[in-house]
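Exercise 3.2. Students should predict the tertiary structure of the chain below and write it as structure tokens, then compare their answer with the key that follows.

Predict this chain's 3D structure.
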Amino acid sequence: MKIFAYIPKNDECDLAKIALNHACQTVGFKIDRIFEELVNDSITGFESLLSLAQPGDVILVYRMIGLIRLPKDEWLNLQIATEAGVNIAALNLKSTLHCLHALNPAERLAARASTNTLMELTEGAINFIQTSPEFAKRQSPPDTEIKSAAGRPVDSALHYRISVLLLSGASYSDIQKEVNCGRSTISKVKQSLGKLDNAL
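Answer key:
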């Protein structure tokens, strides 16, 4: 079994590296190779990772949000890989970390169940975001605003970012630090996501 870590090139890149190194020491595992988002102009780091991962290997991401943000073609390729036996773990979802120590048959079975659950949760989050009227204008420029029922401007891009963070398990404090917003805004977005429980 090999463990491959994937780190997107974004504002969390350095933090993700630190978290991965810390997890190696505290959880007790060894990363065989780290893939960053861009390898060259024609192939991404994630595509390169998937070309090497074999059944029983583990793809480790810093947070579940890394899976939610994958381009559609890479997400579909990940689905194919997991169906073939590749496992997924996310540092912010501790219940998935036993994939990193799946050595006997019972542990491997638990790792497969964990991977399937994580993939279903991620797919549900992606589908919800894509079909929710709340975020229908998420492709608009960041400064695009619409009017709420009370006549106050609503930043659709901000609400979209908050929703993704909530779905990935981020705390209110983490979200406030990342997007610089108030707790009341986070609460409003969380309320709009209430129906996700039934969808999943």
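Discussion points: The longest strand covers residues 3-7. Confidence is low (pLDDT under 50) at residues 136-151, 195-200.
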